[in-house]
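User: Fold this; tokens only.

Assistant: Input:
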Amino acid sequence: MERFEENYGRYTYINLPQIKDYLGINSNTKDASLSNVINYATAAIEHYIGQEVIANNYSEIFDGGQSSVFVNRLPLNNVHAVAEYDGNSYEILQGPNSDGTMVDTESKDSKNIVNVDSVTLRKRIKKFGPTSAQFSGSNYLAIPDDDDFYFDTENFTVDVQARLAKLNTNQILATHFQDTNNKWEFKFNSAEGLQFRVVEGGTETINVAHAATTGYVANTFQHFAVVRNDTELKLYRNGTNVGATVTIAKTVDVPDLTGNVEIGRSGTNTEKFTGFMDEFRISRSAQYTANFDAPQFQHSTDDDTVLLIHFDGSEAGTAMEDDCSTENGFSFTRDTGEITRDVGNLQSQGTYPTVRRNYPSLDLQQPPKFMPFPNAVKVTYNAGYKSTEVPYDLQLATLDYIKLLYKQDQDKRGFSFEGERQEKYPLSSNIPPHIRRILDLYRIIR
């Protein structure tokens, strides 16, 4: 169970300029004191409402045997992963879109992945999940040609977590190879760093490169991505744009190629990849349009993802699966924080009149439940408000509480006649009623 209370007051959602403006303070002489009050006040309010305000990542464990569980933090922004204990180990369930909606599995199919010369799953070195894939420099993965890999002039993203074993040779991350005169390739170039290039009819039509080799580290996982966003083509390393942004005309396309998409090798059997890979993805959209935080969790699939390989499996396994069109194993509701076990179209189905239909039948097994083991459900999720989206009433209540703490008194408790002696009342230990009235709206009571 996450120890939530340790972070109360650590990530403040009221800043110094805000409170100085609210109190009408122009000098800097009280900045240190005000900063301490801000930390104290935000911690006190977070203790009162029972949750952090600023968005953060959390992990929780729940008992199984039930159809749904409720996380302890709201608002729920995204569920990064749900792992279910099956009696032997925790298996990661395929999730929905990042907004909780179901992934469209009708418009695309999971691809067949051919493992050539035994790319092997390893537990000892991994980025996410139980395993990653080890490439020896003499093996690779091949995915038969599919219309999903024809990017044309549309947006696309190819990204991967890669752990290069060496930096002194060119190494293919991925390529769609028809022949040496017709291909696209995404690779590490020992002289230029990350590079994406397209060759059509023997002519290079697109080439974007980092043009530097600094910052690449051998035997360390780094996130690499190439993204087309309209007329811009960018390379990213660990979430930071590297090299110059290349502007290409809207009419410049990535051609319709035949031949395999290959991971870890070019079709000419050269520039093979040596090292480990995790989380390989191809999307028919611009997943990143500006610098971003490098992924901290496995990718969720979405309607635009046409190839998603988590490289999850058992030690020394060689079976690789594409999860771009896998039925969702769970769904979630943002407002309530409910995470529901779901098995998509694999659940019991009706048979009326004589053929199977894609609707659940009524039986004693419904609704589907998590496995009935103690601590059977591990949930990793993001919840809370972005710093720019904290509700105004919550901000105002906090500002007013800070004002009371700073001034060390509260409004007079009653009225008095003119000339009657008046005394200031010391700040009580309780949060004043007019502030509690707002904070009660944000309390989570389980």
